[in-house]
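Its record is retained below.
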Amino acid sequence: MINMNEINLVPKEYRKKTLKFSGIFSKIGGIFLILLILSLLLFGGLFIYKKSLNKELKDFKKEILILDQKRNPELEEKIVNLDKKLEILESIFNNHLYWSELFTRIENLVLKKAYFSKVRIGFLETDLAINLSGNALTYTILAQQMLSFQEDSSVKSVQVSDISLGSEGGIDFNLQIIFSKNILIND
């Protein structure tokens, strides 16, 4: 006897293909379902992490407001001004000029038969200009005085001007001596 449950009008070849197609679909569906679940978990985790970050941000903003209320703007301004003054003072100490070296050098270069009555000092870009008004007994001594300055290694140039006979004798003159600024810096 033939069992009615066993009767199938679909040929065996088609049944196998249908089973294969449904097996593939079930595998893709399973992978899709796993990916969907992972995506939802990731989204949920990121959502919770965002809430946590927003809470931390609010806490930080509150803390900043509390700290901002504790600030003392007057004291901050005083501190900034003090810092600027300290920078200026540091610059002065780092670039301290030693005038004694210059005056000692000039004293050693001045001849005994010449003297200077006025000194004006000015800074050029990289050098030091010294204008001396003086008197020498003769033109020869004036020439020797100029030569004395010109032969010094720290002197860049010497120029004489306003040469005239002095009211008390001798020769009045003005010397402009350009020294290297390094003479004032003691390393």
The chain has two domains: 10-71, 99-184. The two ends are 122 Å apart (CA to CA). Residues 12-70 form the longest helix (59 residues).
